[in-house]
């Protein structure tokens, strides 16, 4: 047996062994997957942010990138992402500006109150229908860009929904109730004060039927 024949037999045997090992691995369902992760704590900040409303959104985001080969042939790549998010809307109380009157009255004057903002977005992304071009392949930066754009679209959609209005109503009425429970009077900026008065009137109107019902039950007993 010459040298060339020996080498060919070794190569054939090695290839057969690899094929047999792969077949056995697929049949037994055994895979050897190893993952490593490193968690680094960058910084800790003290914050005073209050969540007043949460919403759940679903979004279908279509990504498409056209690229020409030699300025003649189109080589597109595209992907579809389905995102499901929980959005928390609230306020950063570090931006609140308030003061108490100099005469000692139990009154809290809110001079400036921040607008509601998205405090966090918890999103689950799933990629579907990923089609790469002949030369126009997906890179890690492409996936990062897709997820960033999908998250930005979700943020805009949340701020265009009723969440900011609900959060605004919630925080104003909560502050009013808290101040009243401690015997303080709350004064907001003029526009917010008008909204608060409307909320108070609505709450009192909704409470009236319950009072009449309780009064009726007591008289019957």
Automatic annotation (TrEMBL):
InterPro entries: DUF4230 (IPR025324)
Origin: domain of life: Bacteria
Name of this protein: DUF4230 domain-containing protein
Naturally occurring in which organism (per UniProt): Spirosoma linguale (strain ATCC 33905 / DSM 74 / LMG 10896 / Claus 1)
Source species taxonomy: Bacteria, Pseudomonadati, Bacteroidota, Cytophagia, Cytophagales
């Amino acid at each position: 047996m010459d040298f060339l024949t020996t080498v060919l037999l070794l190569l054939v045997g090695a290839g057969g062994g690899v094929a047999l090992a792969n077949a056995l691995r697929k049949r037994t369902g055994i895979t050897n997957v190893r993952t490593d992760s490193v968690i680094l704590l960058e910084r800790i900040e003290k914050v005073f942010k209050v969540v007043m409303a949460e919403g759940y959104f679903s979004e279908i985001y279509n990504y498409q990138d056209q690229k020409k080969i030699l300025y003649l042939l189109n080589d597109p790549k595209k992907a579809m992402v389905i995102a499901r998010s929980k959005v928390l809307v609230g306020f950063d109380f570090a931006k609140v500006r308030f003061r108490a009157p100099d005469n000692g009255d139990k009154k809290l004057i809110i001079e400036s109150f921040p607008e509601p903002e998205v405090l966090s977005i918890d999103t689950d992304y799933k990629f579907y229908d990923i089609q790469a071009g002949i030369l126009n392949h997906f890179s890690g930066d492409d996936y990062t860009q897709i997820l960033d754009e999908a998250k930005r679209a979700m943020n805009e959609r949340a701020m265009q929904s009723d969440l900011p209005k609900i959060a605004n109503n919630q925080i104003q009425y909560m502050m009013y109730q808290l101040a009243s429970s401690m015997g303080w009077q709350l004064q907001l900026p003029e526009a917010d004060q008008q909204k608060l008065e409307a909320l108070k009137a609505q709450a009192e109107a909704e409470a009236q039927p319950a009072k009449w019902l309780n009064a009726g039950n007591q008289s019957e007993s």
